[in-house]
Amino acid sequence: MTTSSSAPYPIGTPGVPWGAAERALWLSRQVRHRSYHDDVAKAVERLSDRFDVEVYGQLDYPPDQYRLFAVRSRSWRDDVPVALVTGGVHGYETSGVHGALQFLDRHAAQYANKINLLVAPCVSPWAYERIHRWNANAIDPNRSFRENSPAEESAALLRLVAPLKGRFLLHVDLHETTDTDESEFRPALAARDGKTSEPDQIPDGFYLVDDIENPQPAFQQAIIEAVSKVTHIAPADANGQIIGSDVVAPGIIRYAMRQLGLCAGITGARYTTTTEVYPDSPRATPQQCNDAQVAAACAAIEFALRAPR
């Protein structure tokens, strides 16, 4: 487990929220490390012979533009429910993106005619390229899934799912918790908002976030059991918590999804979860992280299909 340092964040004045100058300075320091076109767009294109692919929006962050891709079951049926899988809401959380693509490539076909799949593999492509949590406006998309969202990444996904409201049976949102949450992203958040960053621990292992307003313990447990065959499950800390939230069952905590503007709260589905993989563990490889995301998606779908409706 990793804790952060108490050194001041290098942008802004402690205790004073950022203004336009600080945001501009922050943006000027962001560097492209990888290619959304090569890693995601080309992978989606290769799937187009087996699935229906659509562009559900476009991000304009001059000089960059990004098309947002959604992948649907080709055998879409009006008499079966819908499952949503999302990845890359936080672009730096790599296995969420590659896990979603791996799920489509290797496993989605087995659910044909059983459930309609809608997959948005990389919700935040600008952040994917820069290995960052925020978008180019220093906004966290995963706190912005609400009406009149300030994040176009979030607004575009909300528009995509709106026509299907009432038909979603489940939604699996694929995330990671990384060492950089403590070393960079939480200190940056505190600096941006003029607050103090308190060091915390990063859990070593996989865990899930259930919904306080719609807890589904058996569903979450089925996912934990499946993922435990791929990678280790995060233990609770000395306070019986994971990232400051009480552990309600091994590897499971709960958040108020809709109140916090989280992606997992957008569908109104009966079954929802946010996965959290720990890619910085010495006990996990990048492929294990992808496999854990896939195992979670498959276990979620299989549980939901077995459950009485």
TrEMBL record:
UniProt-recorded Gene Ontology molecular function terms: hydrolase activity, acting on ester bonds; metallocarboxypeptidase activity; zinc ion binding
Keywords: Hydrolase, Metal-binding, Zinc
Cofactor(s) needed: Zn(2+)
Sequence ranges assigned to domain Peptidase M14 in this UniProt record: 32-304
InterPro entries on file: AstE_AspA_cat, Peptidase_M14
Lineage: superkingdom: Bacteria
UniProt keyword annotation of Transcription regulation present: no
Active-site residues (renumbered): E276
Any one GO biological process: proteolysis
Family membership noted in the UniProt record: Belongs to the peptidase M14 family.
Protein name: Peptidase
